[in-house]
From TrEMBL:
The keyword Hydrolase applies. The keyword Cell inner membrane does not apply. It is an enzyme of class 3 (hydrolase). It comes from the Bacteria. This is Alpha/beta hydrolase family protein. PANTHER family: AB HYDROLASE SUPERFAMILY PROTEIN C4A8.06C, KYNURENINE FORMAMIDASE. Residues 31-220 form the BD-FAE-like domain. GO terms for molecular function: hydrolase activity. Keywords: Hydrolase. Its EC number is 3.4.-.-.
């Protein structure tokens, strides 16, 4: 039998080196991981976790990914944020938390790791709903984002609502559908925010059952047509969770995509 692709969600990972707060709420924090080796200072990589913005999923499930990135020489921050089902989560708290964290974390990390991380705008690595949040941050606060690697992102909230992804997850985030809260979709949906200035790579598996690859195909086509610097890497036979699993066949291509953004930075 093949291994359960969801196993990465509960796989143990080394503890982070530090946890820092970017706000007063207990979930306005990030776990920092020092890069392996003795290389030069690099821009921070901020990992934005998925879980359809819901409270039952937190940053811990990105531990294996974050540890692997640190092992490859990247300074890493695993960003936490308030989520739907929590006080202050959903609209607009989930979104404003990510904007604040992304803006504050490079300075917080550089204070603690001055020889290993620069204060430059970070590269965001967002998975699933975290991919949406990374695309959103780059669109509305481009000076705070140096690049985006979006892994199976929910790149079109209106389409995700129509498809009822994760049984109403988008409506839970924004407080309704596009007909009920159109201004919120206009403000938060990456599909409504193109073109963007930030170099972006989307990686998506062809057999993804949680976030269909068609969402990324349509989004990238529209974003390119509008003038965005964006590309799509589609991985045949890859499902949703392999993109965050350092033990998966997809992992080398995820690293290659991140390196391409780092080289452009």
């Amino acid at each position: 039998m093949p291994a359960d692709p969801r196993a990465v969600l509960t796989r143990p990972a080394p503890e982070p080196d530090r946890t820092v707060a970017y706000g007063d709420h207990p979930d306005q924090v990030a776990d920092l991981r020092l890069p392996a080796g003795n290389g030069p200072a690099r821009p921070l990589v901020v990992v934005v976790h998925g879980g359809f913005w819901r409270a039952e999923y937190d940053r811990r499930h990105t531990g294996p990914l974050a540890a692997a990135l640190a092992g490859s020489g990247y300074p890493v921050a695993q960003l936490e944020y308030r989520r739907t089902g929590q006080p202050g989560g959903g609209w607009p708290g989930t979104l404003t938390d990510v904007l604040t964290g992304v803006a504050e974390l490079p300075g917080l990390a550089a204070d603690l790791m001055p020889d290993r991380v620069t204060r430059a705008a970070p590269i965001l690595v967002g998975h699933s709903a975290g991919g949406h949040l990374a695309l959103y941050a780059a669109a509305v606060a481009p000076t705070t984002v140096g690049g985006v690697l979006a892994l199976a992102p929910v790149a079109d909230l209106a389409e995700a609502y129509r498809r009822d992804l994760d049984s109403g997850a988008v409506a839970a985030l924004l407080g309704g559908g596009p007909a009920q809260v159109p201004d919120r979709y206009a403000a938060a949906d990456p599909r409504s925010l193109v073109p963007t200035q930030t170099r972006t790579v989307i990686v998506h598996g062809s057999t993804d059952q949680q976030v269909p690859v068609e969402i990324s195909r349509v989004f990238v086509t529209a974003a390119r047509a509008a003038g965005s610097d964006i590309s799509l890497v589609e991985l045949p036979g890859c499902e949703h969770f392999g993109l965050i699993d350092p033990e998966s066949e997809a992992w080398p291509q995820v690293l290659d995509a991140l390196r391409s953004l780092q080289d452009d930075h």
